[in-house]
Design brief:
The protein contains 14 helices and 19 strands. The chain is an alpha/beta fold and about 400 residues long. Helix 1 links the parallel strand 1 and strand 2. The strands form 5 sheets. Strands 12-11-8-13-16-17-18-19 form an 8-stranded mixed β-sheet, sandwiched between helices. The protein has a 5-stranded parallel β-sheet with strand order 2-1-3-4-5, with helices on both faces. A two-stranded antiparallel ribbon has the order 6-7. It folds into 2 domains: about 180 residues, Flavin prenyltransferase-like (Rossmann fold); about 200 residues, 3-Layer(aba) Sandwich (Rossmann fold). The structure holds cytidine-5'-triphosphate. Cytidine-5'-triphosphate binds next to helix 12 and strand 16.
Length: about 400
């Protein structure tokens, strides 16, 4: 997929700079031509000669020409910005991130960011505390808003000796993300330019601080839907309840716990082009919440419940022209009848109906068997949740 593609690799001054050398090789092995721009501090971690030898091309560090530079140095940031099909900044320090989102152009790398005409992938890499710092959080949000692609760092052992989120993802993962990015941008993924809101996982409705009403949803199907939408070029916002899954790369993720919190978060993105409600939303929550753990001697034998808002129905009844709403239905009997009723009553476009009694379907398994209903169509689909997610979107958005 990267064959013949031109990748500009930006390396900034973090300890993970050495990993960029491996990443460069991965890009080359995938068929890409690579050039490297470094910040001056990156050269303190890895010598520019390493990258010039591997890329078989001079490395750009200084914006001002020196005696050894060729005559194009004054405008190199413009030429390289035009040359690249993809600009990957890995690792990207908190400092370079801050400069990029504020439009600073104080070195070769940041100047080339401003001049670039291609998609730019930022791989923020730093110590966990720096990553969580309010200024960095704001800068990352701004990076998303400005249209930069951001590959979130991984959790793990950091150079500081601490555990936390801030590690540069492995070169293979950056390669995979870059390949998907290039394929969605240059082959025009069917969802390119679309905003897709996906909800996933269960909600928890607390009775007291240690007890709640929930369901066995693992979030796997919803996460697969979010990844499939991203692979088709969409900008994805994933809102999810408590799950044991790592956040998928390249999208904004928001964690919620209760149905009410999910509702509030959904409202913020309610005018997304496409909404996929895969969350298993609790239909009821306890009418009363006990601030302290209820002692069993004092517990009443009945819990009063209040209905939670039907979020999908709310979306369906304020649906705007052109918006596509996709719901899920989990049934134990009368699949077709119940799913068709939900499709109509909630005023949505498509419903993916799961039968909990079907072998290989339902909660916690990696496969699923579903009935896709909508637009006067009815399709029976089965496979791994990842394959199914892609197939559902392909069928709905006609990319096949
Ligand atoms: N849903 C929602 N808000 C709720 C309950 C469900 O938005 N309070 C959404 C789910 O995310 C799913 C669809 O509605 O996309 C159908 O959910 P499901 O639980 O199958 O159906 P319910 O409407 O809750 O009906 P029932 O429990 O009676 O089957």
């Amino acid at each position: 997929m990267l064959s013949g593609k031109r990748i500009l690799l930006g390396v900034t001054g973090g300890i993970a700079a050495y990993k960029a050398a491996f990443l460069l090789r991965e890009f080359q092995k995938a068929g890409a031509e690579v050039r490297v721009a470094m910040t001056p501090s990156a050269t303190r971690f890895v010598g520019a000669e390493t990258f010039s030898s591997l890329s078989r091309h001079p490395v750009a560090v200084d914006i001002f020409p020196d005696s050894s530079d060729s005559g194009d140095s004054w405008t190199r940031h413009i030429q390289w910005g035009e040359w690249a099909d993809l600009f990957v900044i890995a690792p990207c320090t908190a400092n370079t991130l801050a400069k990029i989102v504020h439009g600073l152009a104080d070195n070769m790398l940041t100047s080339t960011v401003l001049a670039a005409r291609c998609p730019i992938l930022i791989c923020p890499t730093m110590d966990g505390e720096m990553y969580q710092a309010p200024a960095t959080r704001k800068n990352l949000e701004q990076a998303h808003n400005l249209g930069y692609h951001v590959l979130e760092p991984e959790e793990g052992y950091l150079a500081s000796g601490l555990e936390g989120k801030g590690r540069l993802p492995e070169p293979q993962q950056i390669l995979q993300y870059s390949t998907e990015l290039i394929s969605s941008v240059y082959t025009g993924g069917v969802l390119a330019g679309k905003t897709v809101l996906v909800t996933a996982g269960p909600t928890r409705e607390h009775i007291d601080p240690v007890r709640f009403i929930s369901n066995p949803s693992t979030g796997k199907m919803g996460f697969a839907m979010a990844e499939a939408a991203r692979q088709l070029g969409a900008e994805v916002i994933l809102i999810h309840g408590p799950v044991q899954l790592s956040p998928p790369a390249g999208m904004e993720t928001i964690e919620i716990e209760t149905a009410q919190q999910l509702f509030e978060a959904v409202k913020t993105y309610a005018d997304a082009d496409i909404v996929i409600m895969s969350a298993a939303v609790a239909d009821f929550s306890p009418s009363e919440y006990h601030e302290q753990k209820v002692k069993k001697e004092q517990a009443e034998s009945e819990i009063k419940l209040t209905s939670t808002p039907d979020i999908l129905s709310w979306l369906g009844h304020k649906k705007r022209d052109g918006q596509v709403l996709i719901g899920f239905a989990m049934e134990t009997e009368n699949l077709l009848e119940n799913a068709s009723r939900k499709l109509n009553e909630k005023n949505i476009d498509w419903i993916v109906a799961n039968s909990l009694t079907e072998p290989g379907a339902g909660f916690a398994v990696d496969t699923n068997a579903v009935l896709l209903l909508g637009n006067s169509r009815q399709e029976q689909l089965s496979g791994s949740k990842k394959e199914l997610a892609r197939e559902i979107l392909d069928l709905i958005f006609n990319s096949k």
